[in-house]
Amino acid sequence: MKRAGKFALLSVLSGSLVLSACGDDQSVETLEVAEVTRSIFYAPLYVAVEEGFFEEEGLDVDITTTWGGDKTMTALLADSADIALVGAETSIYVHAQNPMDSVVNFAALTQTDGTFLVSREPIDDFSWDDLKGTTYLGQRAGGMPQMAGEFALASNGIDVDEDVVLDQSVDYANIAAAFAAGTGDFVQLFEPTASEFEREGVGHVVASFGEESGILPYTGFITKESTVENNEEALVKFNRALYKAQQFVQEEDSQVIASSIEPYFEETPDDLIAQVVDRYRDQDSYAIDPYIDEDGWDHLQDIMEASGELPARFDYEDLVNTTITDQALQR
């Protein structure tokens, strides 16, 4: 049976790894997932809920949107969530502080940046030089969107310190509203907001940061090492269900996917959801399985280093667990 994920705020997240009765003595394990934002970029997660893939594994996955990487990781570390859906860079920040109970990346969801460069005015023949002398409404310093954005800009000859007026004064959750209200000439936005703005004439998509910044573990699932030690089987089930959803997103018609995840985007028309799914699939943004690529991990740290935000360089084996997916896919 299909069901929508829970959209409650962080304050109503319940305890970790709860076992509850369901039906004829069948037990279901509840996993609390804190997602960094709500986006069609995360379609496979919502598909796994709506198509019953988690349910088939005996899991009840509750999703809470925490609006920002720092808040999402705080939810995980404070045991308000069992799993964080967030950029892999946050695991590096945590691990660098040498905590008693560190974190580990155990599944990939996306493998490119998911943001798009949106211009206030239409530009028929966009050139990156069009940004020079303009106000660029950026993302949070140290967050993956901002770092990948700066990498893409630098790769195209734009120095954010010299060529644009970089405005990072707006909180992550309010960036889109600020741009709609008139702040900035260019902005970096996730979907479906970028396409909604385009349809409404508020802005115009002129470039993809996903295409510009390359393959990297942009958003994935992170948990605490203690959770791996104490309940690895639940994570194996999670990855098995996730893989089914990833294949669904790769193989099904975009309209079918749009119908599946529509409960998470009730104010977005189905045809626009399908358009965004196609846009992300066309640039290979969705990971095809839960494995995190080692070359992508190295590229992530290169981007962080270029932005001046890398606290230390960690080997792939330090912060990426592949055995969970090995078990889930029986490889």
From TrEMBL:
<comment type="similarity">
    <text>Belongs to the bacterial solute-binding protein SsuA/TauA family.</text>
</comment>
<dbReference type="Pfam" id="PF09084">
    <property type="entry name" value="NMT1"/>
</dbReference>
<dbReference type="InterPro" id="IPR015168">
    <property type="entry name" value="SsuA/THI5"/>
</dbReference>
<feature type="domain" description="SsuA/THI5-like">
    <location>
        <begin position="43"/>
        <end position="251"/>
    </location>
</feature>
<feature type="signal peptide">
    <location>
        <begin position="1"/>
        <end position="21"/>
    </location>
</feature>
<keyword id="KW-0732">Signal</keyword>
<protein>
    <submittedName>
        <fullName>NitT/TauT family transport system substrate-binding protein</fullName>
    </submittedName>
</protein>
